[in-house]
Amino acid sequence: IGMRYSRTVRPEGEKGPLFLSSATVVIVEAVKLPVCLCAAAYQLRRHNGLVELLRRELLFNPVDTLKCAVPALCYTIQGNLLYTAVQHLEAPTFQVIYQCKTVFTCIFAYLCLSKRLTARQWLAILLLILGTILASDVVGSFGAKSRSHDAVASKRHTSDSRVMQALTHALGLHAESLSWLIGVSATLASAVLSAASSVYFERLLKAPASDDAAVAGLWLRNIQLGIFALPLSSFVMIAQDGKQLHNHGMLHGFNWVVWLCVFLNSGGGLLVAAVMKYAGNVEKCFATSVSIVVSALLSVPCFGWQPNRAFTAGAMLTCAATCYYAYLSSRPTGAHNSGHACGGSQVGMLHAEDGDTPKLHPGQREEEMPLSLNGK
């Protein structure tokens, strides 16, 4: 809601272009990096210390650090795509479609980690896909009429309106239909990047490590991610919005809503990690389902959005499928295919957002459970 509000609703008297979404990605990374450094220093207080660990891992093991460049690039692109998605889609529609990351995660886990799904999990995924199709309202989105008043506002406040007009003319689509198409494409691309980077990040976290690196495994990997994500996001900001950056500055258009979104995105990973550690995947997915409902309710007064029957049915089906898949993944390994399914003991650990309950490795303490803080 906050991200969409910041991109579609402008305070009275505010002039000039909208704030740079690429700048928010840079600031989010700049906030998360010191948080991870402090957390790693706290966990290593009884060991050799953070400085010694960073010296050994960054200077004397550069190849291992370079491996984090791949997910860092994915997270950087994903962060920019998320703002594009929420600018062109209603917040509830975006949330429902974004749940497809569970599907993509299982596909990448099968291809990269040889993980298999049970028949019931495949059923949950099929229901999730069906719910997403219903909620996205594909047929209605290509109608001639505008779906909401803020779709036009989004187009009017977009800095690249000339590009939008050219695409509308070239593709023969209405402005609202093109806006919907851009939003769905950005959402699906974000989901794919989230899934791919999460599976890749899992492989990094499961790699053998020294005692100190194992204690600070989560924080060390996120520090390594931040080392690459911060300059990468800065490069994207300069390359994409260099002219506006030069004319108006990096923080132009930043109001309290934008800053709220920055800190929510920065702390979101910490909250997800806390939920996964002290509650579980079922509770997290239930909270996700509740958030979809809350977003739908808040979108009515904030944006004048009116949900139709297709969205209501699709959202309910998506919530049910998400919770059902989480329930299957959290069951004991003997309950479904002896741990060979996605979410069983052989699965290991996936990104905190991607539909699998983290499992402890032999000899691993609970506080060492690796959860990436970069997912959206």
From TrEMBL:
GO molecular function per UniProt: pyrimidine nucleotide-sugar transmembrane transporter activity
- Where exactly are the transmembrane stretches of this chain? 122-144, 178-201, 213-236, 256-278, 285-304, 310-328
**Locations of Basic and acidic residues compositional bias?**
353-368
Kindly give the membrane topology term recorded for this protein.
Multi-pass membrane protein
- Major location category of this protein: membrane
Task: Provide the protein's localization.
Answer: Membrane
According to the UniProt record, where is the region Disordered? 353-376
Recite the UniProt keywords alphabetically: Membrane, Transmembrane, Transmembrane helix
- Spell out the GO cellular component terms annotated for this protein, sorted alphabetically and separated by semicolons: Golgi membrane
PANTHER family the UniProt entry points to: NUCLEOTIDE-SUGAR TRANSMEMBRANE TRANSPORTER
The record's NCBIfam families line, in alphabetical order, gives: nst
Name recorded for this polypeptide: UDP-galactose transporter
